[in-house]
Each structure stands twice: as structure tokens, then as C-alpha cells.
Task: structure prediction
Amino acid sequence: MAEVTKLIHEYLRHDKKFPHVWCPGCGIGIMLGALIRAIDRTGFSKDEIVMISGIGCTGRLPVYVDFNTLHTTHGRALTFATGVKLAKPSLKVIVIMGDGDAVAIGGNHFIHAARRNIDVTAIILNNSVYGMTGGQFSPTTPYGMKTTTTMYSNVEQAFKISELAITAGAAFVARGTVYHTRGLDSLFERAFMKKGFSVVEVISHCHTQYGRLNRMGTAVEMMEWQRDHAVTVEKAAQMNEEELRDKFKVGVLADRELPVFEDEYGKIRAMSKGTPAK
Amino acid sequence: MKRKDQEKLLQGNEAIVEGALRAGCRFFAGYPITPATEISEILSTRLPKVDGTFIQMEDEIASMGAVIGASLAGAKSMTATSGPGFSLMQENLGFACIAEVPCVVVNVMRGGPSTGLPTSPSQSDVMQARWGTHGDHPMIVLCPSTIRECYDLTIRAFNLSEKYRNPVILLVDEVIAHMREKITLDGSRPIDIFNRVKPTVPPEWYIPYEDTPTGIPAMADFGEGYRYHVTGLTHDIRGFPTSKPEEIDLFIRRLFRKISQNFADMQIGEFYQTEDAEITVIAYGCVARSAKRAVIDARERGIRAGLLKLNTLWPFMRTQVEKVLHTSDCVIVPEMNMGQVSREVKRVNKGAAKVFTINKVDGTIITPQEIMGKIREVC
Result:
């Protein structure tokens, strides 16, 4: 354990005033640990990595880590990432978003980044709620749940982020939870090594807002809920629809070879300079 | 490499493209909108030839985000749009202001509000260009009235944005964007190109938002070994979010100071026969062309008229405007809006001259005859 802590400390910004903004028990810290371990394993240098985020609790993550970091406007992180990546393709661009950031205000940018298949990794922490602003419902709040703007009941259907990413054309899509921490490490590592648009949806909890309103207990109890409701892709393949009704799949949901935008644009550059031989 | 003089018959939008490439623009992100579309179309074929990048984004919000991202990674970046798209860009334009990211935004104005007049000319985005994004921020806005100026001011826009680390808006009206004139592209004429000042200190000494006497901190590109934090939150000199009143005050005042200390460097205009003028017209964009014709006609009829043409709309050219307010009896401000620059002229007037306006908002240009009519009316 001491060794792991030392590794994490190596990647933190010690001149940034801690403590961080997250509530005790929050899943974002767990995700941050997994991110650092995965980055360390991939061997990318700190100078090569650009970590970009939007707004919200999750959006505060990059300020704590010692990379090139960019904290953008709400929902727009992927657009900034597109510019960074295309201007300097040698950089490893990692985008960190919350569910509101990625699929509400940034939903359009999300599907188009996936469609373009730009070589960027998008990590989305899905805690089903707007935490920083006080617990309002998000596009991933399940039907029937309570939030501070659905005090009677949420009447909207929830987005399934990973399935949306697959349909939109992402090359790699995976889902994990902050309960399955080690699993998260390897999903992140695979996403970072994948050429093309890679998405990892991280199921997390907001016990401060969402959990309290829906009587879901402490952070630990909410993580136990993740344990009890997550089913691996392999196991899910052997289960019927009824058995899967209140479960969600974890693991690699899509891993495919698709044309990557930067490679395709390289061809455009060649075409613009040369005479097309026929 | 030696450049040859090239005589060309160019449209305003085409001259903007030539200026951008000459200034070193290597990244363009945009979304189709008339009357700015030619800029996108031409750059989509020209940029890949110089190893630059053109990308058509999903909307103007995304375009502005991509432009800022590319600039942070070291590319001189630009976008081009018209009123409706310009409204969408305001969000991230504010980000470029607070994070001090150089970039150029071309707004080819058409009538508004909303979808407005696609695509008749207008000059009604003067105030939006200045104050469109929320919060206190400085802004540099240039406005061409000839094809030559489209080229020169685009280069100037890149230079100023790189130098002062502020977005620069090139505010063009549809008449200038689509009009054609003969232009000789530089060649033998020397052109100054300014590139952002980079840090020379070792990374551990680098203070990304340092409060230097010039007010302009050195800017490292992502991936050069200077790992720092860029945020849209109000930040301290290290770039980290702050809520300390003394740090906030210092930061916001520095943003203004870096511009206000250098007004002379960014304010460009032309005095035409104003020395002895009793009536001076203050105009910009396509209207400055009509105004010049009207002044020539007035002089032929023995009326002592003059023109102050504004090529910089913001920061407002107070010194130059005050000068003509003090030397003239009457000042006429014709513009294709309900009175945006005239409002500024009246603000600095303080009773020195009588200020008259011509406001045309029907999607047609103000003619020399209309300006001449006003000159005769007031003299």
C-alpha cells in the first residue's frame, strides 16, 4: 500500500493547495487513483499528457495532477481536446467529464467526437446527478428517482452513456465502477493504448446528494450497490433479459478498428499537395 | 524564400484567408454560415497544403473551443462566422480572455437580431464584439473597409493576439466580405509577423500568469515541458483557482492594463482632410467608403468636410475622436445600426461639437448621397 501511495504522490501537484474539493467518501478520488496507476503503467511521460475537463465536481480533477492541464467551460472539454490533439498529435489527450458535462450540455460534442473517432480518451464519471450545484437530476438519473429538481419523481428516461458512445462510433468503449478499482485500472490502461476515440464510463456514487435523497445509505453502502448490480460482460452473455433487468454490464463493451480522424486527415494533406494519380 | 509580388482581384473573404496564411495561421475550426462561408471553404483546401488543419465542427461553440485548444498546443488559430454563430462563440470567447489564449475570430456581420437578415449587410455587432461575453474583459476589434485592409488587418489581428494574449475580432460587414478589388500581395513589401513570447526560464521557475510590468506573461505551449494549469476560473499567478480578493483584483486589473498601456499599438485609423474641416464624418467598414465619396463631393461644392475612418473599433479610439470633436463644429456618425459607435462618440464629446447620426437598418448600404444630404442639412 505504501508503494502505491508513493506513486500517487509523484503525480500530484504539491504546490496546489490541498485539501481537494470532494466530499469524504466520494468516488472521484478512487477514480483519480486508478487514472494515475494506469497512466504510470502505460509509460507516457507527464509532459506528453494533456488532461482536459469541463465543469462540475469531476471537472475539478485535473488541477490536482502534474500534467498539462486544461479546465474548460461546461460541456466543452472535448472541443478543446479536438483542437489540442489536431494541433499537436504527439500529445496524449485525456478528457475527464461528469455525466451532466458529457451527455447533457456536452452531449452534442460527445457524439461528434465519437463519430469523428478522434484519438482522444474520454473518461466519464457517472454518478447520476449534478453534485456541485446541489443534487439536481441529470440525463443519467434513472426514472422514478428523487433529486432536488425532481422532488416528486424523475419522469425522464436515462441515457446509457456507453451504449450511446458505441452507436455514435467510438472505437473503444468500456464501463467500470469505483467499487471494482483494480478493474478500472486495466480498463483505463486499455483505453489509453487504443488508437481512436476511447470511452470509459465509471459508475460512481454521490451519497451527499443523490444517495441522501433516495435513502441509499452511506458511501460504502452505495459502493456495495455497485458490487451487487454490476455484471461482467462475460457473465451477462449467459444471463437472460429478466436476470439482467436491474443490472448493468461492466468490462469492455466495444473494441474495434475504425478509421481514425488524424490518419484520415493525413491522407487529405497528401492529396492537397500531390497530383492524384489515376 | 523570396516572395513574388502577386496582383490579384480578391474578395474580402479571400483576402482574409491570404492574410491569415501569411500571418502563420495553421488551424481553423468553423461551422458553415453565410456570409462568412468562403473563408472556411478556401481554408479547407489551403491549410492541408501547409501542414495545417481545417476542421468543420458540430457548431460554433465547438469551433471556438477547438480554436482555443489548438492555440494552447502552439498553433496560430482562427475561426470565421456571422451573427448567429458569433452569439454561440461568446461563451468560449470569454474563456480565451480569462485564460489569455491568442486567437482570431472573424465576424462577417449580417442583420440581426437572431437569424435576422441572411444575408444583407449590417454593422450591428459592434457592441456585441466588445461586450458579448459576460464579465469584465478587454477586447481588441478591428474593422476593414477595403480589400487591402482585409489582408493587412487580418495579419495585424494575429500579431496583436499573439502579442497581447487576447482574442482579436475582425469585424467585417457583408459588403466588404463579398466585394472585389485589386490587391498586390506583399512580395517585396516587408511584413512584420509577431509570435507569442515563450518562457526562457527552466520549467520549475515558470509562473504562467505572472504579473509582469507589461502585464503580458510568457506563454508556454502544451507539451514543451512547462506543465501548468489553464482554467476558466479566476486564478492566481500560478494558474490555480483563487477566491482571495487581493489576487482576484490584481488579475482582473492586469487583464485591462496589458491592453490600456498599449492603445497606440492597436488603434489604427485615417484622418482624411480633417485639418480644416468644419464637418467631420466618423465612419468604419463599407460606410467609410461612402463617407469618403461624400467628403470629396462636399469639398467640390466648397463645404469644408473631412473623414475620420476607424479601423480599430475597440479599444475605442478616444484620442483621435476627441481631436476631430475639438476641431470640427459638427460630427456626423453614419452607421448601419441604431447607433453603436455614435453612442461612444457622444460619450466622449462633452459639448465640444454637435453630433449627428445616420442610422440605417434596412439591410442596404448607406450611400454617399445620404451622407451628402446630412452634410448639407447640418452645415
